[in-house]
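pinned: reference chain
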Amino acid sequence: MSSAIIQLIVLAGIAIFLILRLKNVLGTREGFERPDLPEDQPQIAERRNFDVIEGGPDHDIIDNVPEGSQQATALAAMKSVEPSFQVSEFLKGARGAYEMIVMAFETGDLSKVKPFLADDVREAFEAAVAAREEKGLSVEAEFLGLREMVLQEAEFDRPSGEAEITVRFGAELISVARDASGEVVEGDPKAPRKQRDVWTFARRMGVSDPNWQLVATGG
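pinned: its structure tokens
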């Protein structure tokens, strides 16, 4: 008898064994199974705990400010007027705006950030940039990143829809001011500078324009 025929016989035997084994396993009851109900007994549908609990805490708010605080109340009022408003998304935008505005001020090119600046803030920034240029100074800057970003205050005036959110930023950057001859007169090109700012952003809630403006700065 050839080896090929022997292999076929062995494989057939294994297959028959597995089929019988599987039949025995599937034909037994093991573990928890729902007992069959009599035909005349109505079946009761399982109750699933998928009910949504209304009035629960809004983690988009309390993950950023203390629950029950004045800030939390103001943020909740903003959401009641504009349900699509998300605190986490605002903070993400504030992070990007901070870096963009700081670098625009450091390098003296405010053209791209003017839409995000209130008139008095823009005028103050432009005056500072002009004063540097009059002294013949040029600035080289590199933003290294944020060490801290905290939502500090939130206020909402319901009649007008005006909202204000104040954020504390802690950043590191390299900023060097050089005179007309290229000599460093301020800063160190090798040493990061720590910078702390407290900025207030404002916007009317419930309007089509989603952009916040920087309305106040402090340290």
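why pinned: Strands lie at 138-157, 162-178, 184-186, 193-204, 213-218. Confidence is low (pLDDT under 50) at residues 17-38, 40-54.
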